[in-house]
Design goal:
Blueprint (H helix, E strand, L loop, with lengths): L1 H7 L2 H17 L12 H21 L5
């Protein structure tokens, strides 16, 4: 997938996509939450709080990167 994208994206678009991915990683949960409904509004609202809780659990369990 990535090599195909490289051939159709400009350098500016690729940089923008990279920034968006990095920003998403900062607010995404670090653990799976299969019982959470896949509602975009709910995920956007609850995601950052769940991510913060996941990061606290990760830190307490010594799973820091």
């Amino acid at each position: 997938m990535w090599p195909s994208l490289r051939s159709v994206l400009t350098a500016e678009q690729a940089d923008d996509l990279g920034r968006k991915l990095e920003d998403g990683k900062k607010t995404a949960p670090t653990r799976p939450h299969p019982k959470v409904p896949a509602s975009p509004g709910l995920l956007k609202t609850a995601g950052p709080a769940v991510a913060a809780a996941d990061r606290l659990r990760d830190k307490a369990a010594g799973r820091n990167e």
